């Protein structure tokens, strides 16, 4: 009974949040316009998104470097994952999708997908994926899907260290892991 | 539980705080029930908890709630960027506890959303504080500022232009320190609000390029690579060239080198001296580097930005070839092909050198690689190698999976058909290639193949014999009739063999093929074409037969007696029985001479037995064609019977001759292509409201538009002009045009001037700037050569004439799905409205002449839609007035506005000619034969221009 009531409450809360948001969007029309004016600038980042997806197609991590709504994200992931999962090891690691080029690599049961601009260097992105996996491996010790699920925010921290504004800024494993270790020490 | 669903402002109870579930618990609960429903329940529960917990005054509870919410929203369980997530995140930014702060920054960078921008001012101060130096330890401070920079560089912050502007000054010390994050953040800030940020940040950022710290210089290179990316103008970054060059020659970081190369690839086209300067270092990198990513970047830079440096390009091509040949790595093969695709036409021969490797890639396991290889191969096609390449590709089709096989076929068709077959020199080869393509297994390109078969027939006179041969092989194969992809091809083949029946070697065999039992598998539209083709064949056979009897000096009477005698036997006794008998004879004797008495009889009987039952067909198209054909056959027999009864009547024999001649003239006009845009260039005449008519005609239009060859337009021009064609080819003179006009008296109205105005037409020709309407026309050839310089040699010499309309028209017709179908309903409707009643009137007029009356009336009464046309056209006066006004316009425009008059007439004929699926097509022809003034007199050439 209590459970049911709780879910009713949460739904109403959610609805209220949604309504609030819609309201705000109307208010912020001007800002929205400004943003859309800058939409062209969004195009210049090199990495558009990083996705970890397991073999079943479930998203394990999603980091976007451009703004997409929830529905857009879901649709994009669905399409890309379908495309990539269908490919075999003998096929190349690059898939063109809409205006992105998706560079992907499979480690055990996890697919690591990076969406990049068309003129990004595909091989460098493959190296980046490998570096990311190695970094996680060093931190978690023989990283697996569960590690990522239970320590998602740490993986996010690592990604943040490595990629800013869609650019790769840090490629030294030690430097990437230093802040996380610092944080673990302080907490 | 103390959870009251009352006011949302109520803070969570102590119980909630004490028994708060951690993120781990949440993940476990999500994993407990992996089904979608179970997950949804777990998410809903978690969200309701979070809603309460996140309002806790206690930072620990709040942070755990935020952590859970971040988790859920980052995996799309909860909507991104809700207000709910943004506010607590900003609250927690101020927490002195580092993990809380870290979490808050993560939540903020994930959640800040245009919708929550109003909250950003709240964060500005905190960011400012975190960015400024504080009393805390250096490492701690650096960490804090890193977090702040991270947020500043997130897409959310860039969406709020105020934030970066306020904080730009705070970035400067961090830039001076050479922090890669500050550099990335600065790039983002500059991109977000250039006017405010550039004066403050650009110089420190540029200084980072020269920084001794490789991390700083790498980050700076990446930042400038970002800022100079295509939508932006790269020119302002030219002054940075020395620093970048320095980096290019000294840096040992592949990441940095890749970015520097990208910037140079954008800068080099702007400054020629720069290209010369960087060639050497780039080539050195290209040869020395062991990193494939860097090698590939060098290749790409050289091929895109340094095309003038031959040695470098050759070096890059060599590397690219190595990539293509990398057997063990599909990534390298793909990138190698991609790199070769970057090469311009200047290096086509070098690409040609590695054709073997590319061809090998056509069989690759990876679709991307195959596509890229196909793309490359199509890129190297020219008129010299197209036969080799097309042949090779077609042989590859059999080995490929269905999808790729059709990609190949589509690519070959597009390449060969490009710009009116400009690359095809040997049309005999091309026609047989088309037939081969149609026969390949899995071919789903029937529409395009059929279209091109007819198109080549219309445009290339020299290709017709081979076309008829190929059509024959397609038609006689009963296996093809079961493949629905090939119906358009078969339709085209049937049309071709009917239209150019005079080139057929064995009409009897053709009739047999067109009437074979399996034709019942064909769709209605195609069957109708088949039956109509039979009509043409039999008409032609008759004319040859009659003509030959006349030649041989045999008296018409005698010939006729013989024929009549046989015919009466045939028609008076049981038809089926006789035809069976005749077929026996046919098998043995008919083949020897297709125009002998026996073979004619055999064909007539075959037609009666196979087409006869179709008179009762439910489909008007088929029924109508069948009726026409059977009616003709009956007429022939009827005359003979008459003759038999009154042998004394002297003019009966000539009736047969007359009939045959009439029918012969019906089909004697040659069809030519007409500009697709012709109709568009014609102004709508006064008094004609298109939409109004279209609404009424909606039903007819939809029914009408089932022609298989939608993009082919017919324009009749009389075949007897063919003899003089060559002379006409040289001089397109005004007299033929005036003749055209004379013949089109019906379409022309009296203007103030005389009807024959020789000067009008040449003007129209001359002032069509882009048109090369007739390659036969010398002038036009010249313009065509100007446009397609380089094709000159082959186009003028051995290549047969290809009737070509102006280029733009052709381009649009090359995109059949884009232009043509859209336009078709309109033209169909116009045709019906404008010509329906004319065809009607004329045909009946003619029918009274030659006794076809009964048959035609039957035909038209059977056809409901033609009745409809009649009804619509029941105001001949008003309609003719609209037409005449149109003609008036036309006449006026001719002098002043030639492009508009271009194609007007042809279009009209096209529409009349295209009425083939209705009875209009042959009626129109009948009409033109009996009414000389309506014949579009048509020395092939200038008609296309009109």
From TrEMBL, chain A:
InterPro entries: AP_complex_ssu, AP_mu_sigma_su, Longin-like_dom_sf
GO cellular component: cytoplasm; endomembrane system
Keywords: Membrane, Protein transport, Transport
This protein's name: AP complex mu/sigma subunit domain-containing protein
One biological process term in Gene Ontology: protein transport
Residue ranges with Basic and acidic residues bias: 21-40
Subcellular location field: Endomembrane system
UniProtKB/TrEMBL annotation, chain B:
Residue stretches of biased makeup (Polar residues): 762-776
Region Disordered, annotated ranges: 749-779, 857-946
Location relative to the cell: Endomembrane system
Biased composition (Basic residues): 906-926
Pfam families with a match to the protein in the record: Adaptin_N
Keyword annotations: Membrane, Protein transport, Repeat, Transport
Coiled-coil segments: none
Major location (coarse): membrane
One GO-annotated biological process of the protein: Golgi to vacuole transport
UniProt feature, compositional bias: Basic and acidic residues: 888-905
Record's GO cellular component terms: AP-3 adaptor complex; endosome membrane
Keyword Protein transport appears in the UniProt entry: yes
Family: Belongs to the adaptor complexes large subunit family.
Protein name: Clathrin/coatomer adaptor adaptin-like N-terminal domain-containing protein
């Amino acid at each position: 009974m209590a459970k049911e009531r709780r879910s009713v409450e949460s739904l109403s809360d959610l609805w209220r949040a949604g309504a609030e948001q819609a309201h705000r969007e109307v208010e912020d029309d001007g800002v929205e316009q400004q943003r859309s004016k800058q939409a062209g600038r969004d195009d210049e980042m090199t990495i558009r998104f990083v996705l970890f997806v397991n073999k079943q197609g479930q998203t394990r991590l999603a980091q976007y470097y451009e703004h997409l709504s929830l529905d857009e994200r879901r649709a994009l992931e669905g399409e890309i994952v379908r495309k990539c999962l269908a490919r075999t090891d003998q096929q190349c690691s690059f898939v063109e999708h809409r205006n992105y080029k998706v560079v992907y690599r499979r480690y055990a049961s996890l697919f690591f997908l990076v969406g990049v601009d068309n003129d990004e260097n595909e091989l460098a992105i493959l190296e980046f994926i490998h570096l990311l996996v190695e970094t996680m491996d060093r931190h978690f010790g023989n990283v697996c899907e569960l590690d990522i699920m239970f320590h998602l925010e740490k993986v996010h921290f690592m990604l943040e260290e490595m990629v800013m504004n869609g650019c790769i800024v840090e490629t030294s494993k030690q430097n990437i892991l230093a802040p996380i270790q610092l944080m673990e020490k302080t907490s | 539980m103390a959870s009251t669903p009352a006011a949302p402002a109520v803070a969570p109870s102590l119980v909630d705080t004490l028994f708060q579930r951690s993120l781990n618990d949440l993940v476990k609960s999500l994993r407990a029930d992996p089904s979608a429903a179970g997950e949804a329940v777990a998410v809903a529960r978690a969200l309701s908890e979070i809603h309460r917990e996140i309002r806790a005054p206690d930072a620990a509870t709040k942070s755990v709630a935020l952590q859970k919410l971040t988790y859920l929203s980052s995996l799309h369980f909860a909507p991104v960027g809700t207000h709910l997530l943004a506010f607590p995140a900003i609250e927690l930014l101020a927490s002195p506890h580092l993990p809380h702060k870290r979490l808050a920054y993560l939540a903020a960078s994930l959640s800040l959303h245009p919708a929550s921008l109003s909250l950003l001012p709240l964060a500005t101060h905190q960011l400012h504080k975190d960015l400024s130096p504080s009393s805390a330890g250096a490492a701690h401070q650096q960490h804090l500022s890193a977090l702040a920079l991270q947020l500043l560089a997130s897409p959310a912050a860039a969406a709020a232009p105020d934030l970066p502007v306020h904080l730009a000054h705070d970035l400067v010390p961090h830039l001076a320190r050479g922090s890669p994050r500050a550099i990335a953040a600065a790039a983002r800030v500059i991109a977000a609000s250039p006017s405010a940020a550039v004066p403050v940040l650009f110089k420190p950022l540029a200084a980072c390029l020269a920084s001794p710290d490789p991390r700083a210089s790498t980050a700076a290179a990446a930042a400038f690579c970002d800022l100079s990316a295509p939508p932006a103008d790269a020119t302002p970054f030219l002054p940075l060239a020395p620093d970048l060059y320095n980096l290019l020659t000294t840096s040992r970081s592949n990441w940095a080198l890749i970015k520097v190369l990208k910037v140079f690839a954008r800068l080099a086209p702007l400054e020629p001296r720069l290209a010369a300067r960087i060639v050497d270092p780039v080539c050195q990198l290209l040869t020395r580097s062991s990193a494939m990513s860097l090698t590939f970047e060098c290749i790409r830079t050289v091929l895109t930005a340094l095309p003038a440096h031959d040695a470098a390009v050759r070096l890059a091509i060599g590397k690219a070839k190595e990539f293509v040949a990398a057997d063990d790595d599909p990534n390298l093969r793909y990138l190698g092909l991609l790199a070769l695709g970057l090469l311009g036409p200047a290096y086509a021969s070098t690409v040609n050198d590695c054709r073997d490797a590319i061809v090998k890639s056509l069989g690759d396991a990876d679709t991307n690689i195959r596509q890229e290889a196909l793309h490359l191969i199509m890129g190297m096609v020219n008129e010299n190698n197209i036969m080799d390449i097309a042949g090779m590709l077609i042989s590859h089709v059999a080995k490929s999976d269905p999808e790729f096989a059709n990609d190949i076929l589509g690519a070959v068709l597009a390449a060969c058909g490009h710009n009116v077959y400009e690359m095809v020199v040997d049309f005999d080869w091309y026609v047989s290639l088309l037939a081969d393509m149609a026969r390949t297994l899995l071919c789903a390109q029937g529409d395009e193949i059929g279209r091109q078969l007819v198109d080549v027939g219309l445009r290339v006179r020299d290709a017709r014999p081979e076309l008829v041969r190929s059509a024959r092989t397609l038609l006689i194969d009963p296996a093809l009739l079961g493949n629905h992809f090939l119906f358009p091809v078969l339709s085209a083949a049937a049309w071709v063999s009917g239209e150019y029946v005079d080139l057929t070697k064995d009409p009897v065999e053709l009739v047999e093929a067109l009437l074979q039992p399996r034709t019942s598998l064909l769709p209605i539209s195609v069957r109708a074409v088949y039956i109509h083709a039979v009509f043409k064949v039999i008409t032609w056979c008759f004319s040859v037969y009659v003509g030959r009897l006349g030649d041989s000096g045999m008296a018409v009477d005698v010939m006729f007696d013989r024929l009549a005698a046989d015919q009466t036997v045939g028609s008076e006794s049981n038809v089926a029985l006789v035809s069976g008998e005749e077929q026996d004879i046919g098998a043995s004797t008919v083949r020897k001479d297709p125009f002998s008495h026996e073979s004619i009889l055999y064909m007539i009987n075959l037609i009666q037995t196979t087409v006869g039952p179709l008179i009762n067909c439910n489909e008007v198209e088929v029924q109508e064609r069948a009726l026409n054909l059977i009616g003709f056959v009956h007429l022939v027999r009827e005359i003979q019977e008459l003759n038999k009864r009154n042998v004394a009547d002297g003019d009966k024999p000539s009736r047969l001759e007359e009939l045959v001649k009439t029918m012969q003239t019906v089909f004697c006009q040659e069809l030519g292509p007409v500009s697709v845009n012709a109709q568009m260039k014609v102004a709508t005449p006064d008094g004609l409201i298109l939409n109004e008519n279209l609404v009424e005609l909606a039903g007819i239009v939809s029914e009408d538009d089932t022609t298989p060859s939608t993009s082919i337009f017919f324009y009749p021009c009389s075949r007897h002009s063919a003899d003089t064609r060559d002379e006409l080819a040289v001089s397109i003179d005004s007299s033929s045009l005036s003749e055209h006009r004379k013949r089109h008296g019906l379409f022309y109205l009296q203007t103030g001037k005389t009807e024959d105005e020789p000067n009008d037409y040449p003007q129209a020709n001359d002032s069509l700037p882009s048109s090369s309407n007739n390659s036969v026309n010398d002038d036009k050839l010249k313009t065509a050569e100007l446009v397609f310089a380089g094709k000159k040699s082959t186009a003028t010499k051995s290549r047969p004439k290809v009737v070509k309309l102006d280029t733009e028209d052709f381009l649009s017709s090359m995109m059949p799905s884009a232009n043509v179908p859209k336009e078709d309903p309109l033209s169909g409707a116009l045709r019906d409205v404008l010509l329906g009643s004319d065809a009607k009137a004329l045909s009946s007029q003619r029918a009274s002449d030659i006794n076809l009356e009964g048959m035609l009336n039957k035909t038209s009464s059977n056809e409901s839609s033609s009745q409809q046309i009649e009804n619509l056209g029941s105001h001949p006066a008003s309609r003719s007035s609209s037409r005449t006004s149109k003609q008036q316009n036309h006449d006026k425009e001719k002098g002043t506005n030639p492009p508009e008059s271009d194609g007007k007439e042809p279009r009209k004929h096209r529409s009349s000619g295209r009425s083939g699926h209705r009875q209009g097509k042959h009626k129109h022809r009948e009409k033109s034969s009996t009414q000389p003034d309506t014949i579009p007199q048509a020395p092939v050439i200038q008609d296309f221009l009109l």
